[in-house]
């Protein structure tokens, strides 16, 4: 009888076959037997993340989520380990304060090599940074210390729009709002404005900001390639790396400038923590004041790199979002004469020298803002979180620990069971909101990772709306330069932006 002998190539073949069988077995288990197998979704979802990646890369993930929820319901499987969820109850569970589901590693792909308050997935790191940044961004601190400086920028922006209209017949509100909010966040964060409004030019800085949306799309889709040395050889990724380097340079320069100012003025942070103190010293504190103080005196310190990384995300998160909100608000209001009339009359009746409190008390203005933040939430894309190791029940499905769940504000805000006639811009729907409406409305995210800039955002939006419609009560959307509704189509990489990157208005 012939004896069985295994050659080395036979052993390799056997091990390889075993590996493939094991992998296939795992895939089959996950697809047909594992806990996620009961969750509805497209046929390919249990097998691959490719479609998910494609829709993210082409800025369509928000529409994809809306379509899939319409077809499959509130919980949809979109990848071997990934789900979309779409109910106020699931959002409350995932984004709770007590035991929040942590952010997924997807956030670290945003800016590889960078860890900041926004993209960290480390709860301790997050708590430390949030503690230091939250109090300067509180409503009272913003109003007492920062408001006078903010208001001057709004006056300048409106005068620039007026000048355009007088000289060329129209103005680009998207451009001016972006310059405005960029100048504001520059000044509040680093003690000096970026002077976009004065310069009136789409300079490299703004181009980079806009480029960042595309860059982030690429990063999120191909994160591992983007952060590898391979990326240096691929043309798209080379540009991407340059953009990232420039962004770090802006942040570093801003921090350096701020440090120099602090040293030059020998700022006493205690004295300057009130408006009166700031007037006396002639120098105003910044949102990063506490960071410097922590660096100098506190037991817990922030490294120079941490400061730069937080500065970078402030530039990105704090400029685009309020300007996009203001742009879509003006566009939506100007397309609805009855809304425009009611809003313009309300803001026209404000007293001279009106305050933030006066603006908070305006009923219709705040309804319009709430409806704008529903339909045009500035960060409406999926917010991925990881189910804790013990697992969790979401909308009747048991999800094992480690599954990734995404709440998509774009879809949540268009759930017709909660918001009847969801595509209609209707501020009056917020006059008597149902509990479901209130629970499902989350333009600023939720839980411990809710937007830290929310009060600044509200101050900017209220001021912007009031100043704009007091100056231009009869503004209308222009058709010059080929401007059309197509320019305002929603493009969503992570933040929202108008497709044409412009919104031309006549008055
Ligand atoms: C209309 C304006 C704004 C909207 C709609 C908005 C929306 C959001 C959302 C949805 C999140 C949560 C993202 C997530 O869970 O992944 C967030 C976080 C954040 N936002 Fe905003 N934002 C706005 C304005 C601002 C401003 C003005 C700043 C500048 C200070 C800012 C800074 C941040 C930061 C630093 C975070 C991360 C917070 C953390 O993880 O603790 N945002 N924002």
- Tell the overall outline: globular
The helicity comes to: 40-55%
- How does the helix and strand content classify structurally? alpha+beta
- Count every helix, treating DSSP H or I runs of 4 or more residues as helices: 20
Q: Give, in spatial order, the strands making up the sheet with the most strands.
A: 1-2-7-4
* DSSP summary, beta strand count: 11
Sequence stretches where pLDDT stays below 50 over 5 or more residues:
none
Beta content comes to 5-15%
The value of Rg in angstroms is 25 Å
Q: In short, what is this structure?
A:
The protein is α+β, with helices and mostly antiparallel strands. Helices cover 54% and strands 7% of the residues. Protoporphyrin IX containing FE binds next to α14 and α20.
How is this structure best described in words?
A four-stranded mixed sheet has the order 1-2-7-4, with helices on both faces. The protein has a three-stranded antiparallel sheet with strand order 3-11-8. A two-stranded antiparallel ribbon has the order 5-6. The model has no long low-confidence stretch (mean pLDDT 86). The protein is built from 20 helices and eleven strands. The longest helix is centred in the middle third of the chain and has 31 residues. It has 507 residues and is of the alpha+beta class. Helix 11 packs across helix 14, helix 14 packs across helix 17 and helix 15 crosses helix 20. It starts with 7 loop residues before the first helix and ends with a strand. Belongs to the cytochrome P450 family.
């Amino acid at each position: 009888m012939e004896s069985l002998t295994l050659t080395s190539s036979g052993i390799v073949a056997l091990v390889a076959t075993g590996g493939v069988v094991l992998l296939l077995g795992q895939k089959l288990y996950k697809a047909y037997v594992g806990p996620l197998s009961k969750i509805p979704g497209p046929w390919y979802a249990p097998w691959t993340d490719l479609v998910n990646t494609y829709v993210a890369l082409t800025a369509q993930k928000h529409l994809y989520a809306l379509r899939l929820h319409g077809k499959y319901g509130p919980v949809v499987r979109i990848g071997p380990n990934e789900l979309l969820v779409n109910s106020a109850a699931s959002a409350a569970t995932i984004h709770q304060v007590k035991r929040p589901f942590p952010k997924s590693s997807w956030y670290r792909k945003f800016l590889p090599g960078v860890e900041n308050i926004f993209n960290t997935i480390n709860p301790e790191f997050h708590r430390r940074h949030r503690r230091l940044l939250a109090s300067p961004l509180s409503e009272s601190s913003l109003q007492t210390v920062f408001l006078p400086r903010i208001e001057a920028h709004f006056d300048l922006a409106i005068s620039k729009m007026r000048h355009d209209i007088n000289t060329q017949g129209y103005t680009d509100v998207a451009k001016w709002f972006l310059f405005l909010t960029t100048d504001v966040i520059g000044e509040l964060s680093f003690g000096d404005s970026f002077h976009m409004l004065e310069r009136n030019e789409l300079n490299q800085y703004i181009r980079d900001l806009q480029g960042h949306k595309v860059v982030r799309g690429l990063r999120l889709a191909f994160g591992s390639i983007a952060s590898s040395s391979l990326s240096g050889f691929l043309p798209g990724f080379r540009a991407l790396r340059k953009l990232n380097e420039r962004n770090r340079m802006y942040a570093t320069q801003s921090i350096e400038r701020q440090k120099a100012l602090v040293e030059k003025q020998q700022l006493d942070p205690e004295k300057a923590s009130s408006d009166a103190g700031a007037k006396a010293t002639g120098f105003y504190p910044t949102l990063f004041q506490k960071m410097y103080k922590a660096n100098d005196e506190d037991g817990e310190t922030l490294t120079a790199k941490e400061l730069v990384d937080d500065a970078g995300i402030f530039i990105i998160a704090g400029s685009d979002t309020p300007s996009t909100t203001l742009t879509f608000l003006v566009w939506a209001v100007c397309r609805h004469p009855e809304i425009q009339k009611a809003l313009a009359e309300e803001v026209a009746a404000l007293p001279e020298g009106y305050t933030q409190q006066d603006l908070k008390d305006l009923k219709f203005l705040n309804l319009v803002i709430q409806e704008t933040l529903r339909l045009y939430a500035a960060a409406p894309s999926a917010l991925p979180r990881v189910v804790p190791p013990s697992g969790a029940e979401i909308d009747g499905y048991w999800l094992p620990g480690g599954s990734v769940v995404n709440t998509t504000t774009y879809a949540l805000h268009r759930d017709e069971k909660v918001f009847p006639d969801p595509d209609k811009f209707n501020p009056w729907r917020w006059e008597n909101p149902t509990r479901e409406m209130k629970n499902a409305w989350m333009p600023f995210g939720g839980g411990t990772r809710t937007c830290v800039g929310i009060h600044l955002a509200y101050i900017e939006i209220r001021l912007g709306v009031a100043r704009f419609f007091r100056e231009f009560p009869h503004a209308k959307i222009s058709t010059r330069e080929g401007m059309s509704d197509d320019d305002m189509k929603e493009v969503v990489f992570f933040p929202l932006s108008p497709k044409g990157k412009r919104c031309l208005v006549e008055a």
